[in-house]
Design a protein that fits this description.
Oligomer: heterodimer
Structural class of chain A: alpha+beta
Order of helices and strands of chain B: EEEEHEHEEHHHEEHEEHHEHEEEH
Number of strands of chain B: 15
Number of helices of chain A: 36
Protein name (chain A): Phospholipid-transporting ATPase
Strand order of the largest sheet of chain A: 11-30-29-28-12-24-27-26-25
Cofactor (chain A): Mg(2+)
Radius of gyration of chain B: 32 Å
Membrane topology (chain A): Multi-pass membrane protein
Helix content of chain B: 25-40%
GO molecular function, one term (chain A): ATP hydrolysis activity
Largest sheet of chain A: 9 strands, mixed
Family (chain A): Belongs to the cation transport ATPase (P-type) (TC 3.A.3) family. Type IV subfamily.
């Protein structure tokens, strides 16, 4: 048995979480990282295998298919049929097959309350004793709805079938019968040994056994998983590698085949559905809501302003059911890389000898032209730098400091190079470093190749090879890396680059340009550029020899080798001489700061959840204006103390369990921000590590059996306390105007989202682009994926997808807001209309002996919600706009009603109910009064049931259609047509149904023969209808007018907000000039380990037997820190 | 009644550079169409209720409704109507005896005579109604208990009526024609009017019994089976009369073949069920005299002769006889006139109140238009 996990156990101490370490979480890797990693370039040939060892009892034998078919690996499935515990490798995302489609699909559909409800209604209607309406009123729409959904499901499932087939039939080489045979992915079995070639997809969860690279190294691109395009390296275990090298390319394969269970989304929530009396919720509500949602989704898909021309990607609403929730978002959780940033590092500025060289002269953009790099054949033409003065300085070789600056950049790094024909391709462990080395390359200092102990560069016009004496690794405590080189002329020099805070402490007192560089650094920090200070130091041979011995000793020491090495490094990295500093821009996506500012104004809280390091995340926080200088930033320690105090307070209070502590965490009036790492998050929330902690406690208890102590203040007593702690944390985070969680795992991202969902009961939205965001996207109420990039996982599991973060403001502030308002308007009106319609039966029942006689003709009841009143409200639900898109973007405050849910809640529902009751009362009792004892003008009594039904129905139709006209705030010709059309259709259909001809053909179905013509001939009845309509509508107009007069109208509100806006604009400049606190702009997305691999001899091993030609290009192999 | 702001939106909102590249024939771009509908920029009118529209509207409605109401009320008051209850509930009423001794099967008819006086002359055509109270002709089971197909002259339905008619579907193994509860409960009192001349002689007033049903009912909805067969007794020979009826359907009016069987107008009027439990049904028409000089019904003493068959005591019902003249708006009913006057006045009053409120808050509301 072997486990990759072993490595994870070696992470930081238990009490003080290491900020740099991504906490390990065991639930994510096995299930979600299953398919399709992209094996990339470096590895030409790998042999791989997979493991899953989540519980004891699972064991695998490589290259032995019979082994896992043994009885102990079988589990009982049904009676005596047994099945292997290990599932196959075939992906199954489809739901149905030919036989199961009908029953399963119907079952799925009837799981929805609405469908089941209508089925019950239908059954009731079929029973003649109960039936008040003919059965077809429910059956026809129900069959339609079921049919359309079934067809949609069928089409979806066919697409899934096709995709599965394609993936399952992909080929790979499996070791069978002593040689590699081409097999389909779906035929892979646990324990199979697989051979993968360069640039192939990885077909399963796989353990690397060996690769053709030295040291069994291979590089994996995980773009489809987490959106990070830089390569991750994986290294085979030494033992398997060595053995396999001996046995000449063998491999073994272990497999876990947990099904690729497609998420169960689409849990349709028909809110406000069950609250209402049964008969008031017709199936047409269901259909109309679906139509409106579909329409809103189409409008999102069609929106030109969310179309990204560069990648030809329109926005896509992948779910139709969530549009109105887009108007109620309170929390946004955003990924960083690929979402807020482009994951492109650009070398923006540098300062050398106190002089700053710049890319853009902000005042004269017209006169600057990109520097011509044509003199340099190695130049990468994508690179742009606009200070030609710098180039001329370099080419004239006047200033040795400038040359030194770029020489440092080309030498002091851990980048690896690959020659592709004439081109140089750099493989950098971090994009920052890639940007630096590329910059140096463009300025004439081209990094050409490296061996274990030499580095060759092109120095403007001649090649030079430096002997690498030591590589002092980067890590996040040191925040710097150094390289010690022996120059061709024999002198030894140390080059160092690192954080300004660290470097300045180690500068030689005589070092020049300290102040000017610091000023430049401050400016860079203000521009949220990432900075690194560069410096060097000359070392004498004797000094180096002495140090080298210590270094040797430290690197072979058994315990605490890392610490020992750090100490040794510290000794040599002092009295440095400052050259200058680099400034790299982590390019934001377009419009990110503006979007964030806009969303913040709409009271939407934005949390950034990223796997990146604290410094990088904080840096991005500043550059997208999530963090500002006037904020007080709280870190994990601070938060922990606060929460612990709160907990102690609660423990000391005898009634603490019942009382809710209300006071604020941060009493200062200044704005607060929270920057917390995954480690602290676990610590604070008592997540994870439980097993280990319990073990440790057990040990402790064994050791001190008698010493009973007070409960450890950092430990939760029970679940209640844990829950309270989580609640406290959420409360605290919500007090902050910005929250950044860094170094968090995908699992933690999802946990944070679900915490907020649970304790704030708010609508949440997650946005991300990579597979590491999938968890969080699925957890949030609404998931948004950034599309148009390589990885598709985020998009596949998202509800909405578009190409740019900035489209989020349009999605929420325009589409979300509209959808919400429209849906609310639709629901309010729909309930009103059906209350008004249905309650007439109720009033009528007082006069017909409660015999459930309907007040209208059956056909009218059938058609009311379909033809006579549906179209205008449907159009309002689709087209209505209270303000246009520009205004809703300009005044984000207009978004607030959605968050408060103030447009459709119990109050609104009861207002609609009351309004409906009022209208129905009028519609029944005005004709009642008029009919009670009168006769028609021809003497025939019009007080028969059919005439009454016609009058009531006509009043209802006119009232209801005029009412929607009052509610419509955006009148297009379509609306106009719909309102008039509905009334016209009503009269047309009624006269047809009441005509003589149709009665002769169907005498029992159409029994209202002549009712319409006889009734509507009477002026008296027309006067009744007019009076009824008038009484129904006049109070509404009156109240609307009063409301507008007494309470400020929307227009007024907008004006007020506009004033506010202008005020803010005026105030803004003074803000910026305010005293900026000095902070380091250092940020570097590098992780440790690379230098170790390059420098230490053990990593580079000659392999004469295996493809000796490979040695030329690939010899370096850094070691993984985290997998 | 609303202020309008025509809202034609300009065609901006997309970056000029983002226009999908490639002319016709290039790879199809996924760029959405730039149409007014898809971009939600349909030209529209955004109405807002303003004082300038709402207040005049209220005054206008008030000004229109009040005259209508007055007109209705005056017309209603000019209509002459006389109503007399002949149920015979209390001891001293003429029909008390008849109402007490009741049986559907009694062979001898019980008659009673109800005297009444008209104080004013009834001009023009006078309509005679019978009115029933507390009779739920609108009860669901009752309303359903009929076979329109049978009534429409369908042969097969005649012999095999709809199940809805149960329990009045068959009797003695023969189908009932007309089947169902409505038909079974046909009003079968006979009412006759006599004018008591001051000299003591009783003059029978001619009551016209046709023209009391809707034309569509008489000619479309109700038809006798066997189209041209005038001998209804043969047509109905295999059917049975409704249980409560004294005579079969083809003897409803033997004197007039156009008023017999299913197309008997008394029957048709009864089959048109009432909306409310208190209702009137047209019984007879007293046509105005040809000379036009004397009123149709001059003031004086009258006698209503009732052949009392229809029992209502069991459900606490009442039977009435109503005489009424008719105007353009129908019979006497002050409700609508009063309602119109009330609504009109309230509108006027509201107009004044809103005006005051508007003046109080008005200056805040001057700029309620949406800025564009």
């Amino acid at each position: 048995r072997m486990s990759v996990r072993a490595r994870a156990a070696s992470q930081g101490s238990l009490d003080d979480p290491d900020d740099e370490v991504v906490p390990y979480s065991d639930d994510e890797t096995d299930e979600e990282l299953q398919s399709e990693d992209d094996l990339d370039r470096m590895c030409l040939f790998c042999v791989l295998t997979v493991i899953l060892l989540s519980e004891p009892g699972w064991s695998v034998r490589a290259n032995d298919r019979e082994y896992c078919n043994q009885p102990q690996f079988k589990k009982k499935v049904f009676l005596c049929i047994k099945k292997s515990k290990y599932s196959g490798n075939a992906i199954k995302t489809y739901k149905y097959n030919f036989l199961t489609f009908l029953p399963l699909n119907l079952y799925e559909q009837f799981k929805r309350a609405a469908n089941l409800y209508f089925l019950c209604l239908l059954i009731l209607q079929i029973i003649p004793q109960i039936s008040t309406l003919p059965w077809y009123t429910t059956l026809v729409p129900l069959v339609l709805v079921l049919g359309i959904t079934a067809i949609k499901d069928l089409v979806d499932d066919l697409a899934r079938h096709r995709m599965d087939k394609e993936i399952n039939n992909r080929r790979c080489d499996v070791l069978l019968n002593g040689r590699f045979e081409e097999t389909r992915w779906m035929n892979l079995q646990v324990g199979d040994v697989v051979r993968l070639k360069k640039n192939e997809f990885i077909p399963a969860d796989i353990l690397l056994l060996s690769s053709s690279n030295p040291n069994s190294l291979c590089y994996v691109e995980t773009a489809e998983l987490d959106g990070e395009t830089n390569l991750k390296f994986k290294m085979g275990l030494k033992v398997t590698d060595e053995r396999l090298q001996e046995e000449d390319q063998l491999a073994w394969y272990l497999y876990d085949g947990l099904g690729y269970s497609s998420s169960y989304r689409g849990f349709l929530s028909f809110w406000g559905y069950i609250i209402i009396l049964n008969t008031m919720v017709p199936i047409s509500l269901y259909v109309s809501v679906e139509v409106i949602r579909l329409g809103q989704s189409k409008f999102i898909n069609w929106d030109l302003q969310m179309y990204y021309a560069d990648k030809d990607t329109p926005a896509k609403a992948r779910t139709t059911t969530l549009n109105e929730q887009l108007g109620q978002i309170e929390y946004i959780f955003s990924d960083k890389t690929g979402t807020l940033t482009q994951n492109i590092m650009a070398f923006k500025k540098c300062t050398i000898k106190g002089r700053t060289y710049d890319i853009n002269f902000p005042f004269s953009p017209i006169f600057t032209q990109p520097v011509d790099f044509s003199w340099n054949k190695h130049a990468d033409n994508k690179f742009q730098f606009e200070d030609s003065f710098l180039v001329s300085c370099i080419r004239s070789k006047k200033d040795p400091q400038i040359l030194e600056f770029f020489k440092l950049l080309s030498l002091c790094h851990t980048v690896m190079v690959e020659h592709k024909g004439d081109e140089l391709v750099y493989q950098a462990a971090s994009p920052d470093e890639g940007a630096l080395v590329t910059a140096a390359r463009n300025f004439g200092f081209v990094f050409l190749s490296r061996t274990q102990d030499t580095i060759t560069i092109m120095e403007l016009d001649h090649e030079e090879t430096y002997e690498m004496l030591a590589l002092l690794d980067f890590n996040s405590d040191r925040k710097r890396m150094s390289i010690i080189l022996r120059f061709p002329d024999g002198k030894i020099r140390l080059y160092c680059k690192g954080a300004d805070t660290v470097i300045y402490q180690r500068l030689d007192p005589n070092s020049q340009n300290k102040e000017t560089t610091q000023e430049a650094l401050d400016i860079f920090a203000n521009e949220t550029l990432r900075t690194l200070c560069l410096c060097y130091k000359d070392i004498s041979q004797a000094e180096f020899d002495a140090w080298s011995q210590k270094h040797q000793a430290a690197s072979v020491s058994m315990g605490n080798r890392d610490e020992a090495l750090d100490l040794v490094y510290e000794e040599i990295e002092k009295n440095l001489l400052l050259i200058g500093a680099t400034a790299i821009e982590d390019k934001l996506q377009d419009g990110v700061p503006e979007t964030i500012a806009k969303l913040a104004k709409a009271d939407i809280k934005i949390w950034v959840l990223t796997g990146d390091k604290k410094e990088t995340a904080e840096n991005i926080g500043f550059s997208c204006q999530l963090l500002t200088e006037d904020m007080k930033i709280h870190y994990g320690e601070d938060v922990n103390v606060q929460l612990r105090n709160r907990q102690t307070q609660r423990r000391n209070d005898p009634q603490g369990r019942n009382k809710k502590l209300k006071e604020q965490f941060f009493t200062e009036s200044s704005k607060n921000a929270l920057v917390i790492t995954g480690g602290w998050l676990n610590e604070i929330l008592y997540e994870k590590k439980k097993k280990r902690r319990r073990l440790r406690l057990k040990k402790l208890r064994k050791r001190y059996t008698n010493s009973s102590s007070a409960p450890d203040s950092s430990q939760p007593v029970d679940d209640w306390e844990k829950e309270k702690r989580q609640e406290d944390f959420v409360d605290m985070a919500c007090e902050c105007s910005a929250v950044i969680c860094c170094r968090v795992t995908p699992k933690q991202k999802a946990n944070v989202v679900s915490l907020v969902k649970r304790y704030k009961k708010a609508v949440t939205l997650s946005i991300g682009d990579g597979a590491n965001d999938v968890n969080m996207i699925k957890t949030a109420d609404i998931g948004v994926g950034i599309s148009g990039q390589e990885g598709m996982q985020a998009v596949m599991s998202s509800d909405y997808a578009f190409a740019q973060f900035r489209y989020l403001q349009r999605l929420l502030l325009v589409h979300g807001r509209w959808s919400y308002i429209r849906m609310c308007k639709f629901l309010r009106y729909f309930f009103y209309k059906n209350f008004a319609f249905t309650l007439v039966h109720f009033w009528f029942s007082f006069f017909n002996g409660f015999s459930s006689q309907t007040a209208y003709e059956d056909w009218f009841i059938t058609l009311y919600n379909v033809c006579y009143s549906s179209l205008p409200v449907l159009l309002v639900g689709l087209l209505d706009q209270d303000v246009n898109d520009k205004l809703s973007l300009r005044f984000p405050k207009l978004y607030l009603p959605g968050q408060q849910g103030s447009l459709f809640n119990y109050k609104n529902f009861f207002i609609s109910l009351f309004h409906g009751v009022f209208t129905s009362l009028m519609i029944f009792f005005i004709p009642y009064g008029a009919f009670l004892q009168t006769m028609g003008q021809d003497g025939e009594a019009p007080s028969d049931y059919q005439s009454f039904a016609v009058v009531a129905a006509s009043s209802l139709i006119i009232t209801v259609n005029l009412q929607i006209s009052l509610n419509t705030s955006y009148w297009t010709f379509v609306n106009c047509f719909a309102v008039l059309g509905s009334i016209a259709i009503y009269f047309g259909v009624m006269f047809d149904i009441h005509s003589a001809g149709i009665h002769v053909i169907f005498p029992t179905t159409f029994t209202f023969t002549g009712a319409a013509s006889n009734a509507l001939r009477q002026p008296y009845l027309w006067l009744t209808i007019i009076l009824t309509v008038g009484i129904c509508l006049l109070p509404v107009i009156c109240i609307q007018f009063l409301h507008q007069t007494i309470y400020p109208s929307v227009g007024d509100k907008k004006y007020e907000m506009e004033d506010e806006e202008e005020e803010r604009k005026k105030r803004k400049p003074t803000f910026q000039r305010g005293g900026r606190s000095r902070r380091s702009a250092y940020a570097f997305s590098h992780s440790r380990g690379y230098a170790d691999l390059i420098a230490s001899g053990r990593s580079i091993r000659q392999r004469p037997r295996v493809r000796p030609e490979l040695r030329e290009s690939i010899r370096e192999a850094p070691q993984a820190e985290n997998i | 009644m609303m202020a309008s702001s025509y809202n034609a939106k300009d065609e901006d909102g997309h970056h000029p550079g983002s226009v999908g590249s490639g002319g016709p024939g290039a790879v199809k771009s996924k760029k959405p169409d730039n149409t007014a509908f898809k971009q939600q920029r349909l030209p529209a009118w955004q109405p807002i209720l303003t004082a300038g529209t709402v207040l005049p509207a209220f005054f206008m409605i008030g000004l229109i409704f009040i005259p209508i109401g007055i007109g209705l009320l005056v017309t209603s008051n000019n209509i002459k109507e006389f109503e007399i209850d002949y149920t015979g509930v209390d001891m001293f009423s003429p029909c008390f005896n008849c109402s007490q001794s009741y049986s559907w099967n009694s062979t001898s008819a019980c008659t009673c005579s109800v005297p009444f006086t008209l104080d004013q002359p009834f001009e023009s055509n006078v309509f005679m109604y019978y009115g029933l109270s507390n009779f739920y002709q609108n009860h669901r089971r009752y309303v359903k208990s009929r076979d329109d197909s049978q009534l429409n002259g369908d042969k097969s339905s005649l012999l095999n009526p709809s199940k809805e008619c149960e329990p009045y579907r068959t009797s003695d193994k023969k189908s009932i024609a007309p089947c169902g509860a409505i038909a079974n409960s046909l009003f079968n009192d006979t009412l006759e009017l006599f004018y008591i001349h001051p000299n003591g002689s009783r003059i029978a007033i001619h009551l016209v019994k046709t023209g009391i049903a809707w034309w569509t009912d008489k000619h479309v909805k109700f038809r006798n089976p066997g189209e041209n067969n005038n001998n209804l007794s043969i047509v109905f020979q295999d059917t049975s009369k409704p249980v409560n009826w004294r005579k079969p359907v083809y003897e409803l009016d033997p004197s007039d073949p156009d008023n017999n069987g299913f197309i008997n107008e008394d029957f048709i009027v009864w089959m048109r069920t009432a909306a409310l439990p208190t209702f009137r049904k047209l019984y007879r028409i007293i046509q105005k005299k040809k000379d036009n000089m004397t009123p149709t019904l001059p003031p004086g003493n009258y006698s209503l002769e009732v052949i009392y068959n229809y029992p209502v005591r069991s459900f606490d019902g009442r039977k009435r006889m109503i005489l009424s003249t008719i105007s353009w708006m129908g019979g006497k009913n002050p409700f609508l006139g009063i309602a119109y006057i009330t609504v009109g006045s309230v509108c006027f009053f509201l107009g004044v109140v809103l005006l005051i409120i508007h003046h109080k808050y008005g200056n805040r509301n001057n700029n309620a238009d949406i800025p564009n």
